[in-house]
Backbone:
């Protein structure tokens, strides 16, 4: 068996392991719902901007209207999602990924 074949075999074993499957499940369980929620929030903003102009034009404070606040909240929500994912990955994903990486490194040396 060549080194390349051995390495491929190791990666296949890791991919089939319960730990790797758990890592994928944890990643998807957080990422897919958050992606859907963000896309719904973004599309709501776009739809309201196009079809609810009166609502989006309501002035809240001086020249600041609902549309401007919603637009700024798009940026805020993007940063909050990135921060939340970072925390999620650090606590739930990275420990498993680090363990798997060390196992692969040991087997491929």
Residues:
């Amino acid at each position: 068996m060549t080194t390349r074949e051995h390495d491929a075999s190791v990666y296949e074993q890791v991919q089939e392991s319960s730990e790797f499957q758990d890592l994928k499940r944890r990643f998807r369980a957080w990422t897919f719902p958050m992606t859907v929620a963000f896309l719904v929030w973004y599309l709501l903003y776009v739809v309201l901007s196009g079809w609810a102009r009166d609502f989006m034009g309501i002035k809240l404070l001086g020249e600041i209207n609902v549309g401007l606040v919603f637009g700024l909240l798009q940026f805020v929500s993007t940063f909050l999602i990135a921060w939340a994912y970072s925390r999620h990955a650090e606590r739930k994903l990275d420990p498993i990924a680090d363990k798997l990486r060390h196992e692969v490194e040991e087997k491929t040396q």
User: Anything to note?
Assistant: The chain is about 85% helix and 5% strand. Residues 66-108 form the longest helix (43 residues).
